[in-house]
Design goal:
The structure is a homodimer. The first copy, chain A, is globular, with a radius of gyration of 24 Å. Chain A folds into 2 domains: 3-193, Rossmann fold, CATH 3.40.50; 201-424, Uncharacterised protein family UPF0261, NC domain (Rossmann fold, 3-Layer(aba) Sandwich), CATH 3.40.50. In chain A, helix 5 links the parallel strand 4 and strand 5. The longest helix of chain A has 27 residues, at 167-193. By secondary structure, chain A is α/β, with parallel strands linked by helices. Chain A has helices at 10-28, 53-59, 74-98, 113-126, 145-148, 167-193, 215-228, 241-251, 265-271, 283-288, 333-350, 379-393, 410-424, and strands at residues 3-8, 33-38, 106-111, 133-137, 154-157, 204-210, 231-237, 257-262, 292-297, 301-304, 319-323, 326-330, 357-362, 399-403. Chains A, B: Pfam families: UPF0261, UPF0261_C. Chains A, B: InterPro entries: Tobamovirus_resist_UPF0261, UPF0261, UPF0261_C, UPF0261_N.
Chain lengths: 436, 436
């Protein structure tokens, strides 16, 4: 019995949403259920609307109090309805966790730019990664970074405007109905196969952060962990979204330990690069108190797009064109001190269990191109980073490990992996379990 | 019997692709069929691979001749395999049009950046809009403009790297299998309901191009056409992808007439704006010889993102901040001449049937903000545009209509709509059909 939540603005797109609803019911089969939630600006009346806009706007108003939605400016309407719909969906989702008959197996929306912002914010906030989410959008052939973020919202381009049920839009919405119904059924099957969700999984789940220039380190760690221990690795590319996804999966309880080899997103956060994971990087694993090893992979670089897009103020810096669409900038000593400071502050303020946290510094070089002879070799800047971390964490209970090797040294990789194993209290497969 | 094509690089991701294949077969039910095509760099051997990489690379080599794929640099490998896979898929798709037992109902791929580029290029090139396409990508939480383009490739973010079948990736791939199987089933149903595809549709299909500043014109036209004639309208936002989608749907035979009210994408093509539809804009409707009315809506503006992203060379120009993420630049007389030239050249070189083409110039103003008193009112630049078109098309058989009203004048909208009706040879609903 797949149960799908349909979010839509009924004041502007009722006919299209009703068509989508009918198609979902057809695709989902006789036991499929749709809960149709009106997130429009003004209330609409229709027998198929299950949660009316006025109920949402009043009974699910944010803490700050209910507002007269129709009188708000457009941007405010969206923010307000995000708050209301988030509150409603969180309640419905939580109810479904306790009562299988009310469980939610998918969430869908269709609309223009404003609609997409609204629905994606609600889905990202409430629904865990892995729970099917689909948005049909006039906007999907563009930059989806702010829309998808670190979540798995699937995006379908509507091609033409979602206004008027023409031949093409009917087909697109029909495809979307098949997609969400099929996803919801697959999700329901996977829940049934493992009713307690992740808890029944036997393998330990370890997150690893990677970049092109730290790949051989991360590949070696993954190989070592998966060959010798009952572990499955989750590798995240440090694209901004990748680091945030890793942190989110820690918060959701999916990841049980993290080897944060590559923390380059801090550079982009501080220097305005394109792979910025936001100001909260490192916080989730520290706050969770799980085994967590932090290194400084690729902190020699800030990422930009094509060379022409590198900001004016950086044009005279040491720039390296990785390919026509990726330009890297070498971080200087001042920036490296700031990066070190960022790491120190997060560890000092967010660490729940200092015994579970270690910082590993590969003194021989923090990336493939920062070793002697490489285009980003700069011992002075590296030392600014290392000494800031050393000084900042002096007297803390967090262990700092200094290793003369480079980050991609295969021995370094194995040793870091073994450090994590030790923190996790694991034994080799086949060997008796170590006391925990 | 949904039939789904699975494109994948088996040399690097065989285990993940085999898992995806098995999940699709489970989601699609007992009659579901998967054709698994290996688009990797080197051949892999597995009983479930239906089209081997070496067959693809040799028997479907491009006209320029077969190459030793493994010896090519990475970028070349992708280009070469795009050519081979495109040739194979075009053959398979065409075969399916003739033989229902071989029909294709969906296409899916999963992989990293290179994989996504490869698969999206093949799908965009071969498969019509409306035929289900899904890509699971490490890349989907980013700029999908170049990937989705004017097509309806649906994008699912893999969240973690597609390497190693961990708990999360299994769930994501399982969701993807449900999505493509469900879409393919919905598509198959919609084909069965209308076996000849678009040809059985009764209503005439008219494309309209729109921008925020020409919305009241386009809304009025749509209302007039749909209320009075057996017509369904397809509205396209001029986002670059939107204009290209309109042109593509003309080429695919979906649109039977076009009112190209808003040709602002030409400004972005010529001046480096963000809503560039490429250099081929206007060509498809002209070459198709269908009823086609071109106007100059929103040619007063080039689109950029936030003000800080407007190129240095334009910072002193007349800029208008529509909102924090959209900055408009007024086109000047020189640029307007170039825009006029673009329109003239396309009409001169691409028109198949001059009797079906008209150019309509709203002399009172080309957008909501270009009328007297508006921030982009500039009679001199407008006149540069109008006179270039007048002079350029002098002596051609294409009718130029000059109208003193503004583009958003409701009477102007109705008159333009009626011009198209006349070209299409339609009568009002209920009235006897006019002789064609």
């Amino acid at each position: 019995m797949p149960h799908i939540v349909l979010l839509g603005t009924c004041d502007t797109k009722l006919a299209e949403l009703l068509y989508l609803r009918s198609q979902i019911l057809e695709s989902g089969g006789p036991t499929c259920k749709v809960t149709f939630v009106d997130v429009g600006r003004t209330p609409s009346a229709h027998e198929h609307i299950d949660v009316r806009q006025d109920i949402l706007a009043i009974e699910y108003a944010p803490e700050s109090g209910a507002k007269d939605v129709a009188s708000l400016p457009r941007g405010e309407v969206i923010r307000y309805m995000i708050a209301c719909a988030t509150k409603w969906l969180a309640e419905a989702y939580t109810k479904g966790l306790k009562d299988p008959d009310a469980a939610i197996h998918g969430c869908i929306n269709a609309g223009g730019t404003g609609n997409t912002s609204l629905a994606s914010a609600v889905m990202r906030e409430v629904l865990p990664i892995g729970l099917p989410k689909l948005i049909v959008s006039t906007n999907a052939s563009g930059d989806m970074g702010p829309i998808v973020g670190e979540s798995d919202v699937t995006m379908m381009y509507s091609v033409c405007d979602i206004a008027g049920l023409n031949y093409l839009l009917r087909r697109i919405l029909s495809n979307a109905s098949g997609a969400i119904a099929g996803m919801a059924q697959a999700y329901e099957r996977s829940l049934a196969a493992s009713p307690q969700g992740v808890n029944l999984q036997q393998k330990k789940r370890v997150g690893l952060t990677m970049f092109g220039v730290t790949t051989s380190c991360v590949d070696k760690i993954r190989d070592h962990l998966e060959s010798n221990y009952d572990i499955e690795c989750f590798v995240f590319h440090c694209t901004g979204a990748g680091g945030r996804a890793m942190e989110r999966l820690v918060s959701e309880g999916v990841l049980e330990a993290v080897l944060d080899i590559t923390t380059t997103e801090i550079c982009d956060q501080l220097c305005g690069g394109v792979m910025d994971a936001g100001p909260l990087r490192l916080e989730a694993p520290l706050k969770a108190g799980i085994p967590y090893i932090v290194s400084v992979g690729a902190t020699d670089m800030v990422n930009f797009g094509p060379r022409s897009t590198v900001p004016e103020r950086y044009q005279q810096r040491n720039l390296y064109e990785h390919n026509p669409t990726v330009t890297l900038m070498r971080t200087n000593a001042e920036e490296c001190r700031a990066i070190g400071d960022f790491i120190v502050k997060k560890i000092k303020h967010c660490t729940k269990d200092a015994a579970q946290v270690q910082v590993v510094l590969p003194l021989g070089g923090v990336s493939m191109i920062a070793t002697p002879g490489g285009p980003f070799h700069d011992a002075e800047s590296d030392e600014a980073l290392f000494s800031t971390i050393r000084a900042g964490l002096k007297g803390s209970k967090v262990l700092i490990v200094e290793d003369e090797r480079t980050i991609n040294d295969q021995g370094f990789a194995v040793d870091v992996a073994e450090r994590l194993i030790h923190l996790m209290g694991l034994s080799r497969m086949g060997a008796p379990q170590r006391m925990q």
